[in-house]
């Protein structure tokens, strides 16, 4: 029963993550891939540059920057879903790694239209990660209806991100 619950949670999470991340990818339209890929890699040390980048980063560049930080991590997570289903602790560890990729992605976004959508996606993901950790620790107490609602929040945030990137 515990493994089945964790498997369900991991599979649902992977679907939600991939829906959200692939949603962000369509906004870049191939524009700005090279300029977006490095703009946030230094994180905290580039904070003084952030305000000047905010006014100059286009939506396409911002969307591409976010996508470049999280796309490979999402693909890696998807490829490991079946293995992670049998090992809840490994699943949580991988999901935390993905959380860091999301954080890096949000940091890379400086456009004032795109940033709130990227932050909303990360916030929804954080809520889901908290629930996954709880499920992994005590699968019998899992509230799957709450988990489903949180999964929907991640998907909705991904949709909103896509809308701003394609507008």
Automatic annotation (TrEMBL):
Sequence ranges of Low complexity compositional bias: 42-58
Source lineage: Bacteria, Bacillati, Actinomycetota, Actinomycetes, Micrococcales
Comp. bias regions, Gly residues: 26-41
Residue ranges of the region described as Disordered: 26-58
Protein name (record): Lipoprotein
Keywords tagged on the record: Signal
Species of the source: Curtobacterium citreum
Cleavable signal peptide: 1-23
